[in-house]
């Protein structure tokens, strides 16, 4: 190979992880489904991840791969992926297992990639300002527009919705595959399920608040609050409650972790919990419609879950396998007067139905290990602990709302990049600093946009770290879908 070509190839290989990470963030909201109706729905992000996977995994393995494999959370993800593959052996419709296996693989790769990014390309966090957040803001704007103008949403879904939700999904939306976004009291933006759209906005709102703690950019905090305030416009009842409870809890925990005395920590914790509970109680008391809608939704879910409980007594170990739920639910639905095809609407119940008790335990372990990682980071005393409460709240949102929705352990494919980034922060090895080391120095490198906080504020506890201008920024202030893959 000629020397210039060899050098170019080597440089491209070195830059592939950073370029791949940037690309998946750009495509996170639109996704882009190019194959026409009648073919399998596969998102461009899934294709891109698959094409780059060998280079990405090789680079990550040379970097943080070994330390990642020592992380129990990553082991749980790999175990769950293996169990999903094994479940194909006893599944009545193995083809229906393709989507959850492929997209979980995408999530695992993204977690590994984001761990590499935090170690070698910390400046990507600042580049999210134009790579990712404008798209999230656009999704929020669409939710607002479609809520006040349902006719515009109908036209959007009929004309170009297939490019963002999958052409098979969009084609079935006005036929046998109807979804709640068609309700005039709901709005989903590029999503065909308004509840999933609410999860997307809520998790991203908390993620923005988490990253704003590091970058100290006021506009990012404002965006985070705006995203959270947009959640009720989706029409999701459970998400509206989470929009109040989780940010309040995160704020209280963050302040508590910085308090100087145990008494002050107890005061802040009690105050935040009491305040959040009071606001939720007031919200439910004032809005009788919201309260009644939540009760109706819960009662509807329990009818679905009763089928799961009956089947669990019959098949506790192996579950139903991929496609087994749909086969068994149709006669049950006819008996109960329900729509013939309802998914489990519970992330853990779905895990058992598809992969058996092993999948259930590993899914539960993922969330438990994420919670443990949050607690570990909060007590470790390094600088990144300041974002942990909001990152923990984001993961908690995925779990809590997922207990009543048709989502996966990562929520939805749109959430994979940002949730992977937050997970990467949570499992970051102790003492690892954000750096642009000499072995990874480029000609256009500068001081990392998000340096290790330990470089600027080495001691735990209260007090404001003085960050460089590159981190503070120029602004003021101190501060679903049987044939679908993706």
Quickly count the domains: 1
The number of helical elements comes to 19
For the CA atoms, what is the radius of gyration? 23 Å
Please state how the strands of the largest beta sheet are arranged side by side: 1-2
SS-derived structural category: mainly alpha
Q: N- to C-terminal separation?
A: 38 Å
Poorly predicted runs are 433-484
| Molecular shape | globular
- Largest sheet, if any? 2 strands, parallel
Task: Determine the mean pLDDT.
Answer: 81
Helix-strand pattern, N to C? HEHHHHHHHHHHHHHHHHHHE
The helix fraction, in percent, is 55-70%
Number of strands: 2
Question: In percent terms, what proportion of residues is strand?
Answer: under 5%
Features:
globular, mainly alpha, 486 residues, 2 strands
Overall description:
This protein has 486 residues and is mainly α. It has one domain. Helix content is 66%, strand content 1%. A two-stranded parallel ribbon has the order 1-2. α10 runs antiparallel to α11 and α12 runs antiparallel to α17. The C terminus is likely disordered.
Helix and strand arrangement:
Layout: H1 3-27, E1 41-42, H2 44-69, H3 72-87, H4 98-120, H5 124-131, H6 133-148, H7 150-159, H8 161-165, H9 167-173, H10 194-215, H11 218-230, H12 237-258, H13 262-286, H14 288-314, H15 324-336, H16 347-380, H17 388-402, H18 416-426, H19 469-472, E2 484-485
Parallel strand pairs: 1-2
Helix pairs in contact: 1-2, 1-5, 2-4, 3-4, 3-16, 4-18, 6-7, 10-11, 10-12, 10-17, 12-13, 12-17, 13-14, 16-17, 17-18
């Amino acid at each position: 190979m000629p020397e210039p070509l060899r050098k170019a190839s080597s440089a491209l290989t070195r830059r592939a992880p950073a370029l791949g990470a940037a690309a998946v963030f750009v495509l996170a909201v639109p996704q882009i489904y190019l194959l026409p109706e009648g073919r399998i729905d596969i998102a461009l992000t899934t294709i891109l991840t698959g094409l780059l996977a060998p280079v990405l995994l090789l680079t990550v393995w040379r970097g943080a791969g070994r330390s990642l494999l020592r992380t129990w959370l990553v082991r749980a993800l790999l175990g769950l992926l293996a169990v999903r593959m094994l479940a194909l052996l006893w599944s009545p419709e193995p083809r229906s297992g393709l989507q959850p296996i492929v997209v979980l693989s995408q999530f695992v790769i993204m977690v590994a990639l984001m761990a590499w990014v935090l170690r070698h390309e910390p400046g990507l966090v600042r580049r999210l300002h134009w790579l990712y957040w404008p798209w999230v803001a656009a999704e929020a704007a669409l939710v607002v527009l479609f809520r006040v103008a349902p006719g515009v949403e109908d036209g959007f879904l009929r004309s170009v919705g297939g490019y963002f939700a999958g052409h098979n999904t969009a084609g079935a939306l006005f036929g046998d595959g109807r979804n709640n976004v068609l309700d005039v009291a709901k709005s989903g933006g590029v999503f065909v399920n308004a509840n999933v759209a609410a999860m997307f906005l809520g998790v991203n709102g908390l993620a923005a608040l988490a990253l704003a703690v590091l970058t100290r950019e006021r506009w990012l905090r404002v965006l985070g609050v705006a995203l959270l305030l947009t959640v009720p416009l989706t029409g999701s009842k459970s998400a509206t409650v989470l929009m109040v409870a989780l940010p309040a809890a995160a704020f209280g925990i963050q302040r508590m972790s910085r308090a100087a005395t145990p008494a002050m920590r107890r005061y802040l914790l009690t105050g935040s919990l009491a305040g959040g509970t009071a606001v939720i109680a007031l919200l439910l008391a004032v809005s009788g419609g919201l309260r009644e809608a939540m009760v109706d939704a819960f009662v509807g879910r329990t009818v679905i879950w009763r089928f799961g409980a009956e089947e669990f007594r019959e098949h506790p170990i192996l579950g139903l396998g991929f496609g087994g739920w749909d086969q068994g639910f149709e006669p049950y639905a006819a008996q109960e007067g329900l729509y013939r095809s309802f998914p489990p609407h519970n992330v853990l119940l779905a895990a058992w139905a598809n992969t058996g008790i092993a999948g259930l335990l590993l899914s539960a372990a993922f969330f438990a290990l994420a919670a443990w990682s949050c607690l570990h980071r909060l007590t470790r005393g390094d600088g990144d602990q300041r974002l942990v409460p909001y990152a923990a709240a984001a993961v908690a949102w995925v779990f809590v709302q997922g207990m009543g929705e048709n989502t996966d352990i990562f929520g939805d494919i749109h959430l994979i990049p940002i949730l992977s980034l937050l997970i990467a922060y949570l499992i970051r090895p102790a003492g690892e600093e954000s750096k642009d080391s000499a072995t990874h120095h480029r000609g256009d490198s500068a001081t990392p946009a998000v340096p290790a906080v330990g470089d600027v504020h080495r001691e735990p506890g209260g007090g404001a770290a003085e960050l460089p201008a590159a981190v503070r920024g120029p602004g003021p202030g101190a501060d679903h879908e049987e044939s679908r893959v993706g």
